[in-house]
Design brief:
The structure is a homodimer.
Chain A lengths: L8 H19 L4 H8 L3 H14 L2 E3 L14 E3 L4 E8 L3 E8 L4 E8 L4 H15 L5 E9 L2 E2 L6 E3 L9 H13 L6 E6 H11 L9 E6 L3 E7 L2 E2 L31 H4 L1 H8 L7 H12 L3 H25 L3 E6 L1 H4 L1 H14 L9 E4 L6 H16 L7
Parallel strand pairs in A: 3-6, 6-9, 10-13, 13-14
Antiparallel strand pairs in A: 1-2, 3-4, 4-5, 7-8, 10-11, 11-12
Chain A binds a DNA duplex through helix 1 and helix 3.
Chain lengths: ~400, ~400
DNA sequence: TGACATTAGTTCGAGACTCGTACTTAATAG
DNA sequence: CTATTAAGTACGAGTCTCGAACTAATGTCA
């Protein structure tokens, strides 16, 4: 029980097939010779693997690219028509679904207000399946992003402070729902932390694309982080990694909802921000932040308040950078609508607080995926095994 | 250039051989059937692999264990007589060498005072080679631990604030020295950060053995951390992960050597600790801490000072735990001689500051490896490829 | 004491895979 | 129209894993 790849020669084939798929995802359409060079496999081997993938509907040939001497190569590309993955998000005030195909295209993206209910989530899953999976396609996996602490089994929930959830049943319920719908092989169902999912999405599709070491921060009432190191999520011993909202960091006078003093989110969480700008909360964090941004255009007092919040954000990022040294930090949640109003002071504080003159400041960017980040990352996670050799499309 | 294992069937054999070696390391002497069960390979395959390893001198049969029905199994064990790795540490005030054999035994461990000089290090390497490697043995790799920022190539140094080093040459010089000595295949030479090496050692041999998620803290004049997640070191985008000394955390009045205020090491570094207990620095941090510990037995003022330092330590660990969620935190450097004088207040502070009621406090332990931790971890890192399939002993 | 049950390890042939070489195919250059 | 160049395929050799059958070594029980 040691090697994930599988021991025998067919395990070897799975790994090599996955390598070809990864190469196609990273470099786009490629000829067999290009694939052979990129993967290190022999031309002949790539030929066989591509033929298998073609038969499975995972790749297709494109029109050839002429113009050079010699026989023109026939590029092969990932094909999204047959294989998809489903990502869901169950949050406090909304529910989302994203269907992602093998080629990385978003086939469906839907959010519904009023969340927190498992039945709503399953209904959304059924609808998404009907629209975007249906007959011809194969659903390889589904992942539910939840604002909760998920155990190492990737199925059960250890702690969900804001959600009333029967921690054990969610994955099983979804698996049963999907099994009713589909005829083919049962998809792999998993549960995952929402900040981790969003971080994964940003590092694959969004603002941190291409960065192997990224940090995602989401700001709502609380502050959460998702950590990507070497392309993989850092989860910690019990899944608590990234619970940065209660870092003892802010000024000691600020009282946090947890009862302690000086927590980071007591200085930069949504409520602290609203107190700084002396405005009231609207129905969702995003809409609230949009209203604040609008007011900031005319009100210098609001801008000054956001400046103070931004400095607090920068201080926390300095802290996290000292520990993790990310290349990119992506800010999501309520930070996104505020943009440079918060980012600029954060950058300045960060520059003052870098660990050394040699360390480069991580790039601070705004989330580009918005509310569907978590669901998208969940779908991407479900697609993961296809590219890592955990799932064989050709069998 | 994608799959590290190697593509062909001999790469598969390398992976399976490594799996057998890992199983032997983890579970100790095992019969072929036990190995087959543990690795998932077929009995026949394990038989072939063990025969190859035996021929290479990597494993040997032990006396059989009778007493049960049926033919008694013949346990096979890792054999240290033929394969060793060298770990070196080049520090400011000392130089160390450790030779570790394949069975995990320390064959040689030596420290010499007065460090910082490359020539001294090479001389120590030569001596260690002569004593512990010599004729019959094969040196598979050597790693130098340095208090410096090491680039992603694992050979060159990007920044060494306390050391005068020609950053590029160290690895090459050592490789040349070893090539002169040995006849066999040239060992792989690498350079690595000292805190990372120590963390690796503690998680394999020391106080954090068995923990997949561990954090190592070393306290001297500065504070450094080594982070182990899922058994692997976290290095960050540019190798700066774990540079926690300048986390903006302490009270803002404390001025740090870096010129800023509020750095963690300005509150809990060696000099801050000495100021708290009103004592003077001796020749090395360890000896200084021993003197302080001795004085604490009789002087309540010293105990009170250490109490304050311990609270600062606990606060920083609370911070790091929020981000990384380690199972075990190991304290090394000057903290080790002080023991519970620092650990007890740190534990109390940590209990007060945990992110939630659900999160379990990471275990705080003292380093058991002392000054040779870094060199030992360096040796262990050099042995790594043997167990990960990166190096084939049988060819 | 000796046949039997039980477990460990080996032998052997089948099947799967990768690889290098030689060959075929399809385009451009002159 | 021919030479050249490069992509893709066919094929045989080599390596590997696997399951089944077989041999080996020990305890059990009559």
């Amino acid at each position: 029980m040691d090697r994930p790849g599988g021991a025998g020669t067919e395990g070897l084939r799975r790994d090599n097939t996955a390598a070809v798929l990864r190469s196609l995802r990273r470099r786009g359409p490629s000829t067999r010779v290009e694939l052979a060079k990129d993967t290190g496999l022999a031309k002949a081997t790539v030929g066989v693997i591509v033929a298998d993938l073609q038969a499975a509907g995972a790749v297709a040939e494109e029109g050839s690219r002429p113009g050079v001497r010699g026989r023109p190569g026939r590029p092969v590309a990932l094909r999204g028509d047959d294989v998809v993955a489903l990502g869901l998000e169950l949050n406090v005030d909304y529910t989302s679904a994203v269907v992602l195909d093998l080629a990385g295209q978003v086939v469906l993206s839907e959010s519904r207000p009023g969340g927190g209910d498992t039945a709503d989530l399953l209904a959304l899953a059924r609808d998404a399946y009907a629209v975007a999976v249906g007959e011809g396609r194969r659903l390889v996996g589904a992942t539910v992003a939840v604002p909760a602490l998920v155990r190492g089994d990737n199925r059960t929930i250890a702690w969900a402070p804001n959600l009333h959830l029967d921690g054990a049943g969610l994955a099983d319920d979804l698996a049963a729902t999907l099994a009713d719908l589909g005829a083919g092989p049962a998809p792999v169902v998993r549960v995952s932390n929402d900040a981790n999912c969003a971080a994964y999405a940003e590092s694959h599709h969004g603002a941190a694309r291409g960065a192997a070491h990224a940090l995602y921060l989401t700001g709502t009432v609380g502050i959460g982080a998702g950590i990507v190191q070497d392309g993989e999520l850092v989860r910690g011993g019990a899944g608590f990694a990234g619970e940065v909202g209660h870092m003892p960091l802010g000024d000691a006078s600020a009282v946090c909802g947890c009862g302690r003093h000086g927590c980071w989110e007591a200085s930069v969480g949504l409520h602290a921000m609203l107190a700084e700008v002396q405005m009231l909360e609207l129905d969702t964090p995003l809409r609230t932040a949009e209203a604040v941004a609008e007011r900031a255009a005319t009100d210098p007092g609001v801008r000054a308040g956001l400046e103070r919040v931004g400095r607090g954000v920068g201080l926390g990022i300095a802290m996290l950078s000292s520990v993790l040294d990310p290349e990119v930090v992506v800010l999501g949640g309520y930070f996104a609508p505020l943009g440079d109003l918060v980012l600029d002071p954060a950058r300045r504080t960060l520059d003052e607080r870098l660990a050394s003159a040699v360390q480069v400041r991580p790039e601070l960017r705004l989330s580009t995926l918005g509310i569907r980040a978590a669901a998208l990352g969940a779908a991407e996670q479900s697609l993961g095994p296809v590219f890592s050799g955990g799932l064989d499309l050709t069998s």
